[in-house]
Structure formats: C-alpha cells, structure tokens
Design goal:
The protein is α/β, with parallel strands linked by helices and 355 residues long. The chain is 34% helix and 11% strand. Strands 2-1-3-8-7-4-5-6 form an 8-stranded parallel β-sheet, sandwiched between helices. Helix 1 (31-42) runs parallel beside helix 9, helix 2 crosses helix 3 and helix 8 (308-320) packs parallel to helix 9. It is globular and about 60 Å long. Its cofactor is Zn(2+).
Length: 355
C-alpha cells in the first residue's frame, strides 16, 4: 500500500485549544499523526512525501478568495501585533455572520477586505485557529490527499493519505471542526476526472457536512455518511436523512445517522446499506473518509464502537472491488489510532497480521 505524509504537517499545533469531551484534553495534536506513521511503517507500507501540487490545485474544490485568506491570514494577523495591537497568539474569529446551513448552497465571498471581517467569515468556529505553522500544514495535508488520489489514478488499488489537519468539515469557502481544506473532496474531484462515477464514504463520528455541501448538486459523485445523529452533536445543522441531494445531485447524497450509544453490531446494518448504495450507484472508484473518533473511549465520541468496526469497514470495501483512496479524518484518543488503523488495513487485506 502506498501512503503519503509530509513532516510539515506536524507544524500545525494549536495553542488555544477547543477542549471537548469527558477527558478535557487537547484534541488535534501532532502526536496523532506520529502514531499513525508508526503503524504504517511497522506494516511495511511505503510512506512517501507527497508531490507539491501548488496552491491553485486547491481551487478544484475551494474558492480562490478563501484559499488566499488561509495562505495570508497569519502574516496579516502578526502585522496587527507589530502595529501595537493585541490580536491574540493565533488567528481566531470574533464574529459569526449568518450562514443558513442549507446543503448545496455556496456562500458568496466576504464583501469586506478587513482581516477581522474575513476571519469571522471564513473561520466557522473556534476549533480552527491559524498559527505560524498552520498554512504549510494545511497545504501539505491537501497535497497528501492529491498524491494518494493520483496514485490510484495511476493504477494503485489502495492509497492512504495521512491528512492532518483533517478536512471533511471544510466547505467551499469556510473552515470548521478542525478542518480547513476538504482533502476527501479534493481526492474525489481528481478521481472524477478519471472515472465517470465516484463515491465518498464517510465513517467518521461526525457528519461530513463540508463534503456533502461541495457535491450536493452533483450527479457524478455519491456522498454517503454514517455518523452520530446530529440534533445534539456537531455539526448540528446537517446530517439528516432527508438530505438527499439537489438538482442533478438528487438521490446522490445518503445520510445514515446513528443513535448515540450505537455499538459495532448496531452499526453494521448502516454500513451494509452504505455499501449497497455505492454498488447500486455504479461507483468506479471510492474515497473513504476514515475517522477513529467512533471508538468508544475517544474523548469526543458518543458512539460505542470497538476495533472490529474498522475491520468490518475494510472487509465491506474489499468486497466492492473498487480502487480506494483512504483519507484520514478524526480520532483523538492517540492510543486508539494504531489498533484502529491496523484493523481497517487487515479488513482491506492491506496487511496480513496484527502488529
């Protein structure tokens, strides 16, 4: 199996953590990626530095104005400090402009050149700070997904993008939920230039709202998400079963909400339905947004999965027989990441034995 990661992705190290869950510990820490790299290396995976795809490649799924903001916000923020102001140690919003949350509706660009206004507009919540090393980490995280997608286009049956920061909550021009660039959407868009029908399956604990929104009116990309029911869980505003797509994309979005407390055995019918939908769609290639925050002891989980859940995911996808791009999303209990990834790879038959 080919895997992609750049050590630059360690540089995103938020200092103003959004502390969530019963353990009250910082969540998106660099140690997450280090643990996953160790698992890959012990399994003999080839971990390569991704190609530099540049900045414009991100415009495949994001607005140029939004990308320009992410690339320049921290330097502009520091300029405020140089001018004698005290903006804080990282870029964070203090405004919350109205956003309808309507699936498939893309917001216009921010009408104001003000950094404060743009920060409130483009950073959707307090879990998306921008620090000194954030932009390069964000950029290279997207490049890992692009390189994994290209590997599959070139003939690899399976490629893994160790994307950090994650991406599935990133909309066309809005960051949220630890996510800035939608790595899975970027991979899917690249695959769609090779194959006429592509599917994205998101099995993170949280609904992949950004991915859904980017493809909601598309008929060539099926988006399927199994996730904790969202009436009382992030992202709250989307992830409901009645959201099925719009226009040419009608019927090409499937949400399978799971009751809080759902176990692995209770998850399997939803997984089977997801795989059946992908097969009926006639997908020719697949992107898997994999999150290990469904694990029962994850600090922000409301689900009760054990590690067998990830093995089942891998087995079901192997049965589909499609080329697969794995894109890393959540999972915030560092100790659970290695056995989670190990189980997934065993299910996919990408490794032969447990470490």
């Amino acid at each position: 199996m080919q895997a992609f990661f750049d050590s630059t992705q360690f540089a995103h190290n938020p200092q103003q953590f959004m502390r969530l869950g019963r353990l009250a510990k910082p969540t998106d820490v660099p140690a997450r990626a280090q643990a996953l790299i160790g698992c890959l290396e012990r399994n003999g995976a080839q971990v390569s530095v991704p190609k530099d795809w540049g900045v414009e490649h991100l415009h495949l799924v994001h607005s140029p104005a939004y990308i320009q903001y992410l690339a320049t916000a921290y330097e502009r923020w520091e300029a405020l400090r140089t001018a004698g102001k005290n903006p804080g140690v990282e870029v964070l919003p203090n405004l919350s402009p109205f956003y309808s949350g309507t699936p498939g509706v893309q917001r216009p660009e921010c009408p104001s050149p003000s950094l404060v206004a743009q920060t409130g507009y483009y950073l959707g919540d307090l879990s998306c700070p921008l620090g000194a090393g954030s932009w390069q980490s964000i950029l290279r995280s997207a490049h890992t997904a692009a390189s994994a997608a290209q590997a599959v286009i070139d003939g690899a049956p399976l490629a893994y993008a160790l994307s950090r920061p994650s991406g599935h909550h990133a909309h066309y021009n809005r960051a949220s939920g630890f996510c800035y660039i939608n790595n899975a959407a970027l991979a899917a868009q690249m695959l769609s230039q090779q194959w006429s029908k592509v599917a994205v399956l998101d099995v993170d604990a949280h609904h992949g709202d950004g991915t859904q929104n980017i493809f909601y009116s598309r008929g060539d990309v099926l988006t399927v998400s199994t996730h904790a029911e969202t009436t009382d869980y992030f992202p709250f505003y989307t992830g409901y079963a009645h959201e099925t797509g719009a226009g040419e994309g009608e019927g090409c979005n499937l949400n399978l909400p799971l009751a809080h407390g759902c176990t692995t055995q209770q998850f399997l019918p939803a997984l089977d339905r997801a795989v059946e939908a992908i097969a009926q769609f006639g997908a020719q290639a697949l992107v898997l947004s994999i999150g290990f925050d469904t694990y029962r002891d994850d600090p922000i989980s409301v689900l009760q999965f054990d590690f067998d859940a990830y093995r089942h995911v891998g087995e079901r996808l192997r049965q589909l027989g499609l080329p697969v791009v794995l894109v890393q999303e959540g999972g915030y209990m560092v100790e659970a990441l290695v056995p989670g990834l190990q189980a997934l790879l065993e299910g996919l038959n990408a490794v032969t034995a447990a470490v």
